[in-house]
Design goal:
There is one protein chain. The protein is built from 19 helices and 14 strands. It has about 475 residues and is of the alpha/beta class. The chain has 2 domains: about 200 residues, Rossmann fold (3-Layer(aba) Sandwich); about 240 residues, Rossmann fold (3-Layer(aba) Sandwich), CATH 3.40.50.720. A 6-stranded parallel sheet has the order 3-2-1-4-5-6, sandwiched between helices. The radius of gyration is 24 Å and the shape is elongated. It starts with 11 loop residues before the first strand and ends in a 13-residue tail after the last strand. The structure holds uridine-5'-diphosphate-xylopyranose (2 copies). One uridine-5'-diphosphate-xylopyranose (UDX) binds next to helix 5.
Length: about 475
């Protein structure tokens, strides 16, 4: 889109929320727009101190380099939220919007508490017009509520324009996704002021994104598009995971089925990798949100349709754990199970909704001894995840059942089975012969990501079960 002369110029940006989305997104904006001052603020001083240190709070390939290039130049991390709001022409609201744990819509609706708190703060400290951008994934029509709060709490006559600019980056590839996005979506009101605000934000992206990749829609379409995109992506994974169950029962190979389907240009090859189940902060939360929205709109059939994507994901995780138990002669009591990978996908240290939590919970409830290794997830985070209310009731027993290993080799020593929960590259190239020697026999590998060379492992002596790959069923020999 082409910049209009009447669009306000953005000279200073504030991002509220220095998390997985706000941090990398606004770091890349600072890198690509050296003429704009970007200040990322957060209520959490520990997080801000980490952003100002050599050990960033978010592991993301390429992020260190971007931050090193810009920090102190035009990129700043601060806890002084009010100052950054006052100074900015444009404010990204990038705080978390978790699923509500209690009250109306508990278990489904997004908790907008932090978005509202940020909006109230903007209203109370602003002394000049601002463009406010929803970066957080929010339910449809959140912008309306923000407008009411702003108007009721700000200086009379002060102008605020609200935009929706959902972020489509995926963790692990965030810098690549931000540097060369498939699209930048900006939702605004269709008033001249709304359009001018959208143009001002578009002009920021035009510093590095080709104009044809930046497109504008109405506010509500933009808000809903983020939920819709995540729902469609997650639905593909649940669909292929449903096929994986059929493959395991029939001897078909889900990777071959996915490849055959993906060659159809209408289907395409991406996001058809069968797995132990999807994780991450977005898919489950956003679908639950969509289910809640559909129900609230009196569309129970639509709600049930999307709910099934989550149900299938839960089934995939539980089915995988059951397979481990059944294969290990129906008992894993006191058996050591090595869990390789704890992050919800490779190249991130993020564990939100990771399938590994659910697997470890199931193995523990069967009284197994679990040894976990992940190259990037801090040990303290794993303990936190395993002792979350709802995951386990007895914090003490966790320490008797679970150990955290410093390497994959260490995790697998004396184990009866290895479970690959995350597709880290180092598990593909692990010295599997050494692993085999150190394990109890028969030695099992359960590949929840279908990444290892199963034939090579079988040659070593392993019994291998890969998700979506059934036992080879011989054709009947006809007399
Ligand atoms: C983001 C989005 O904002 C969320 O809506 C989307 O669905 C997923 O990605 P993310 O960046 O991953 O969330 O969340 P998180 O890493 O938890 O970061 C949010 C940050 O906001 C935290 O550092 C938190 O301390 C901060 N915060 C929260 C504030 O600064 N102020 C608040 O009032 C609340
Ligand atoms: C997702 C969306 O991809 C991104 O556009 C949005 O902004 C945020 O939510 P993210 O959750 O970071 O990003 O990672 P993604 O690559 O989508 O993976 C999500 C989960 O699905 C992971 O657990 C991953 O392992 C799993 N997955 C992904 C599969 O099981 N199979 C696939 O084919 C793809």
């Amino acid at each position: 889109m082409v910049l209009d002369r009447t669009a306000p110029k953005v000279r200073a940006i504030c991002c509220i929320g220095a998390g997985y989305v706000g941090g990398p997104t606004c770091s890349v904006i600072a890198q690509r727009c050296p003429h704009i001052k970007v200040t990322i603020v957060d209520v959490n001083p520990v997080r801000i101190a980490a952003w100002n240190s050599d050990t960033l709070p978010v592991f993301e390939p390429g992020l260190d380099e971007v931050v090193k290039e810009c920090r102190g130049r035009n990129l700043f991390f601060s806890t002084d939220i009010d100052d950054a709001i006052r100074e900015a022409d444009l404010i990204f609201v990038s705080v978390n919007t978790p699923t509500k744990k209690s009250g109306v819509g508990a278990g489904y609706a997004a908790d907008l508490h932090y978005v509202e708190a940020s909006t109230r703060r903007i209203a109370s400290v602003s002394d000049a017009p601002k463009i406010i951008v929803e970066k957080s994934t929010v339910p449809c029509r959140t912008a309306s509520s923000m407008r009411v709060i702003l108007e009721a709490n700000s200086r009379p006559g002060l102008r605020f324009d609200i935009l929706s600019n959902p972020e489509f980056l995926a963790e692990g590839t965030a810098i690549r996704d931000l540097s060369a996005p498939d699209r930048v979506l900006i939702g605004s009101l269709s008033t001249p002021e709304g359009k001018a605000a959208a143009r001002a934000l578009a002009a920021v992206y035009e510093n590095w994104v080709p104009p044809e990749k930046i497109f504008t829609t109405g506010l509500w379409s933009s808000e809903l598009s983020k939920l819709a995109a995540n729902a469609l992506l997650a639905q593909r994974i649940s669909s292929i995971n449903a096929m994986a169950a059929i493959c395991e029962a029939t001897g078909a190979d889900v990777d071959e089925v996915a490849h055959a389907c993906g060659l159809d240009a209408r289907i395409g090859p991406k996001f058809l990798k069968a797995s132990v189940g999807f994780g991450g902060s977005c898919f489950q939360k956003d679908i639950l949100n969509l289910v809640y929205l559909s129900d609230s709109l009196g569309l129970p059939q639509v709600a049930a349709y999307w709910k099934q994507v989550i149900t299938m994901n839960e089934y995939s995780k539980a089915r995988f754990a059951q397979k481990v138990v059944q294969t290990l002669f129906s008992t894993i009591t006191n058996k050591k199970i090595a869990v390789l990978g704890f992050a919800f996908k490779k190249d991130t240290g993020d564990t939100r909704e990771t399938a590994a939590i659910s697997l470890c919970k199931d193995f523990r409830s069967e009284n197994a001894l679990v040894s976990i290794y992940d190259p990037k997830v801090p040990e303290a985070q794993i303990w936190l995840d395993l002792t979350e209310p709802g995951v386990v009731d007895d914090g003490q027993k966790v320490k008797q059942q679970v150990t955290i290993a410093a390497s994959a080799i260490e995790a697998c020593k004396d184990a009866e089975a290895v479970v690959i929960a995350t597709e880290w590259d180092e598990f593909r190239t692990l010295d599997w012969a050494t692993v085999y020697k150190s394990m109890k026999k028969p030695a099992f590998v359960f590949d929840g990501r279908s990444i290892v060379d199963a034939a090579a492992l079988r040659k070593i002596g392993f019994q291998v079960h890969s998700v979506g790959k059934g036992p080879e069923i011989q054709d009947p020999v006809w007399a």
